[in-house]
Amino acid sequence: METLNETLFLYQISEFLYKKTRLKRIIPSQIDLQVFFAISMKNNMLYYHCEKLLRVYRQYLNENSIIEIDNIINKLERQIGKIKTTIIFLKNCLKDFLLIKTYRGYPRIPNDIDILATDFRNALNVFKKEGFEAKDVSFRYESAQLFRENYYKVHLHGKIHWANSEFFDRDFIMAQPRDIEFLGIKAKVPSFDADFLMHVAHINFESLHITLSDLFYLYSISKEINWEKQLFQVKKYNWKRAFINTLKIMDGLYHRLYSDVCPFTYFDFGHKALKSDFDLIMPKTLPRLYLLNNLFEKRLFLYALLKLPKSLKILSRGDAYTDFYRPAEDIARAKLT
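RE: above sequence
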């Protein structure tokens, strides 16, 4: 069960990704490490946090804790190796692609490596020729899952869509890609504007929850965002309210975490802090009213009916995480035990 100290320490140890919070400071002796590991995994940050624990907080850890953290890192590094191998393969074998939704500014173990290719059919043929098995192939939505032994799972996209719907212009996503370094390998990802909007759309129409990984990444790139470009896309594709509602959540979290000017002053929505540190617990499912708004605003009635059991469960419980996601790092650890 999440407790306050573990939550506060989660934010504290993640400060290297953005900036120092004003929250109460915690040392490892004040937390239950097993609870912390569980929360960190849910937020897709276990590998990163374990490395930080040993580098920054080692003096507060006993010998058994150090051994346990070392073991976690060693197991997860095998997955890191597969991710590196796969990205190198992509760079060598595909001509034009962007790494999407995978890079967030830290050594992350994703559920899969998402890529957007300029030519979906050609890219799919390259994977097949190189021995990858293709599953869940959709030529209509230009999407395929690719598998090969000793490689990481790849999700190939020719278009970006969720809930059988589109959310932005393809040219907007492909324009002005930027160079990054992920796990020591150079790669191309979408522009700051495209990356920000893609993550917000994914939160609203696929995962339906926000993780700390999402939050710190979006904060870290928010100063680079052209809000007029964002609003043009969300108005064109009928999800402006969903977009604004997500920024409101991020804004309330920001004012609880920090005392300076927030990144969202372009918008006028009160800019009030969340009332309690317990409101900082992550992952955070989008409020039910927001989810219903998304359904109506984007007119996703048929899709919701097709997913009726899931839709009803989420709306009744107010939890879009527990029964629907297993942390990638938990799956990786289980495979290696």
